[in-house]
Amino acid sequence: MIAGGATALLSGVGLAQAIGGWLVVRRFMRNARPPELRNPPPITVLKPLHGDEPLLEQALESVCVQDYPAAWQVVFGVGLSSDSALPVVRRLQSRFPRGDLAVVVDQTIHGPNRKVGNLMNMLAAAKHNVLVIADSDVRVAPDWLRQLAAALVQPGVGLVTTIYTGMPTSGVATLGALQINHYFLPGALLARAMGRQDCLGATMALTRQTLGQIGGFASLVDHLADDNVLGRLVQRLGLKVVLADTVPSTTVPEATVRALWRHELRWARTIRALEPAQFAASVLQYPIAWAALTVLLADGAIWSLGWFAATWVLRGLAVLATDRALFPEPSRVGSGLATRSPLWLLPVRELMSVGVMIASYAGRRVDWRGHTMQAEGFNPR
Questions:
Q1: CA-CA distance, 24 to 261, in Å (whole number)?
Q2: Residue 41 belongs to what domain range?
Q3: Structure confidence by residue, pLDDT tens digits, 305-337
Q4: Which residues are bridge partners to 249 per DSSP?
Q5: Which of 63, 92, 325, 340 fits a disulfide with 26 by CB distance 3.0 to 4.6 angstroms?
Q6: What is the pTM of this model?
Q7: What are phi and psi of 365, to 5 degrees?
Q8: Residue 111 lies in a domain
């Protein structure tokens, strides 16, 4: 009974965190403002690619149709001329002949982080001083560049990043989108409310000068969590890492539970290596999992079953409220920038998340796009 009461209390902590997450999401979305730019800087967007991923063309197209009042360029980079992403890029070049769309094909390997190595190869083709680094699967709103530029020109800002939602491509991928939208995203905003300035790698914007001051992309190429390292190095310069008032979506492409498990295990081992205490404490954000453990420890007592049901309902209400805050416009649902969350999957999602956390302690090796790397803490040379 005592153990069951303790786990019920822990599930209550998770519910409080879920409510807090909804509140910070609502505040962020309500405080978002249209960007004001008097002298918009020219921008180069760097898009490292690897293969023809699900919905790749739609994601890349969203970058090609930006409503930006100054010159802007997109540089796509691949390692091999046989990369299946190249035909997608060629189609976009044909569809947008007036766009400044460049392609770099370079198989030079600079270190274990192949994405950063790709960026190193692409940099010479960049025309402009402001650099925006965006993952291949990021789908953005037409004012994305405006929002990034408006944040970057503020005094004391060295790096701009964004929170992001998950857009599933299958039923299994819906589990991944739940993790992004209702655990990662609110957690990132709660961390920022407590003073953290984490860099979130889906979108990163900075100037060439700032990049040079931290040692260029070469300072990141040996690290798995290049976004985290970039954010910390920028803060070492005495500059701020801020969030832009825009919320892109990232494609969740996994079609099997095994593929999703491997992806999330890579995330988990990376975060555990960088922030071991914070990672361990994050298990509190799964109230339904704790309530399920309460039922086991209480031998299925009526009160524990009632608590499990109540926890599921309350967590579901927080999910619905967060969805409404993130996606206030119904037209965004199905547009590639929004998705609704199935509440019946919440217990499965939380039990899987706890399983991934436990498995992360079994080693440090991660598999990333066919390459093996070791998750490590922050220890830049």
A1: 28
A2: 1-375
A3: 999 999 999 999 999 999 999 987 654 444 445
A4: 139, 165
A5: 325
A6: 0.91
A7: -75, 140
A8: yes
